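# step 3/5: fold
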Amino acid sequence: MRQRAESGKKLQQETINQDFTLQPLGMPRKAAWRRSAPVGLSNHGMAVSSSRPWRGRADPFAVVAAPSGSRLPEQQKTSESPLSWFRGVYLPPALHPLNKTFVKGGEWQDIDSTQEKRRAFLQDFCRKYNSRKKLQTHLVHLVSRIYVEDRHKVLYCEVPKAGCSNWKRVLMVLSGLAASANNISHDDVHYGKHLRKLDSYDLKGIYTRLNMYTKFIFVRDPMERLVSAFRDKFEHPNSYYHPVFGKAIIKKYRQNADEESLQTGSGVKFKEFIQYLLDSHRPIGMDIHWEQVSKLCYPCLINYDFIGKFETLEEDANYFLQLVGAPANLKFPKFKDRHSSDERTSTEVVRQYLKELSKEERQLTYDFYYLDYLMFNYTSPLV
């Protein structure tokens, strides 16, 4: 373990010292492309075969086993050996066409065309990165971020800072838990536990829904999502992120930190946050608000039928609601969930934050989200 840690540290230092040039998105860096059975369309996991090291991190596509504390239905805890969960996990075999029975009017044609291109792009990406590895994971872990709405038979994988609060509101309305999305508070959305996750079902229930329900995901430009998360969690009072993350970050990355900052964890700087993000020996673990989408929703292992983007959130969301037969009066909420007076995190806002980083830090941050950029065809940032 010690040798591995020293090796990772050495690799990270070598990376910082080298010259950084961005490669065009859409092509992996000297990747050995393999054309075989589509990933997510079979029972295989993912791996990248590349001559460029991944910053000393683990295989970016590898799916790790769920911790021992993961929830398993009681009947399976007693009737199945835990080892059985690490073998033979077969996910839905094919990407099925969207059911457009409920779509009315011709104004959705452009959005539908864009949607099909996104699906084809992701499918092609996953096919090219197909792996020789078997999928070895707790299925429970794989679907732990997916919310279930049984009435309209939809599964939503939550990506924080990509419209997830309003999507949860919409799911509550779809399920009959609320009459309007506009009257649901932030605390009810995130702490009310009104919505059920896919990992709470038994094995048969999970498989049935993965095969039969419409699976959707909404994503966002990785840098915008990262900066949005930082602004939300560290630039406003927060009773969790300041004492838990802020204190640890300030203690490790700020020289001569004053006693008040060490006690409260308030005032974390963006540069300090990025140092934490890129540190292979972080003083505290990752958080879903800045975790890569590739590790939150496993887009190459679960075949998402609909891929929405934050950049076209309103039109994508309302088209999706038509696809699943939502009530005609239900529209995706336009309001900003919190800190409504703040300027929205835009490309220009992101550019200002990135100026606080060195060129090396900007490049490493881009590399951290490299797969998310590739999977969802986002343009690389100017670093």
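# step 4/5: annotate
The beta strands are 44-46, 130-134, 146-149, 154-157, 196-197, 214-219, 306-309.
# step 5/5: archive (pending)
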